[in-house]
Write a structure and sequence with these properties.
The chain is of the alpha/beta class. Helix content is 37%, strand content 20%. The protein is globular and about 70 Å long.
Length: 445
Amino acid sequence: MKLFGTDGVRGKAGTFLDAMTALKLAQAAGIYFRQHSKTKKILLGKDTRRSGYMIENALVSGFTSVGYDVIQIGPMPTPAIAYLTESMRCDAGIMLSASHNPFEDNGVKFFNCHGDKLSNKIEKEIEDIFFNNELIISSQCTDIEIGKAKRIDDVIGRYIVSIKSSFPKELTLNNMRIVLDCANGAAYKVGPTIFEELGADVIVVNDKPDGFNINEECGALHPKALGKLVVEYRADIGIALDGDADRLVVVDEKGDVIDGDKLIGAMAVYLKNHDLLQGDGCVTTVMSNKALEDYLSENGIKLHRANVGDKYVLEIMKNENINFGGEQSGHIIFSDVAKTGDGLASALQVIAMILCSGKKASEVLNPFELYPQILKNLMVEEKVPLDKIKGLEELLNKFRELGLRDLIRYSGTENKIRLLLEGKDQTLVENSMEELQQFIKSNIC
């Protein structure tokens, strides 16, 4: 597809995603949702990027022009949009965010009336409408059919109550010190409030967005600084969110960053031991370490692998009737308490596990050792189909015969190719990755 990528429509604000594109995208989405409309209401939230002002107003113009009423709720986490879309009986929800990308990018994420991300099929239908100028022109409304927009500021409380209610009532965060990194993003208000109201001593950092500092050397993408603060403040745990707060990275009391696969493994076994894991299964992506798969198998849990993207993880979770899954990168999904990856809800579940264990975070969140894994990203001018790259399959087969696991894919949002090699021998993995990089550079970079 030309517009939609791995997670909605994303690109540099003002060029790929300019005001006219946003307006037309809203019209196309509005035309699609109008076919199944029950309330003629669209919920619209955003993160803290400066470009959000421009694109938000363009989206409002597009939706109202095709007869939709728009409810604007300002900066809120992506999972809040998923929850509130269903709670407020809207036909669809829109989150204006480029997630973990730098401030100059922005994106438009769509949710249906149930708070679920759209399937590829529906995204394709919206994209087809986007390029059908005749249909867009004929679908615009006049007179009393034109929609209206209003801003509501008090919905933040509904989301806070929802997240707090997911934390076990028999537990409290009293006597727990938490360092919370909000990434200067969408959770800069709700995050601190949730942890403080549950009784924690919270040290909050990166909670002063200026439109340009979202994800800048902070948050889930840069957790090492958080680790130093956890040690400095003698905190029990560090919580790092990304720009739209759907991603979680945890730092233990020693200041060490916990690998996402280890966190998923520890949580899956905890849920199973407490009879809270449906289907005796867990869903991750093709990026997850083989050591996680082996650890889960030892504990009677089957690992299902999905394509990269939390919506694909959730898709398999639904198909297999599984209530827990996630991505190594920090999208953790507890479908019993959240519609999608939710950094704040996931953080509370992890903390509950630690409290129930009576142990320190470093003990609970390191249940197994990872196999050596190397991931490299290379810029490319053109995304040549992998099966068209002469000699690539032969090279990968050679690696596989040596016992390595490989994953080669293009980024869904950037002109990058992502290379992953994994095996039990560190030296073999390093040498093989060097060979693979040289091959890629010689053929497509």
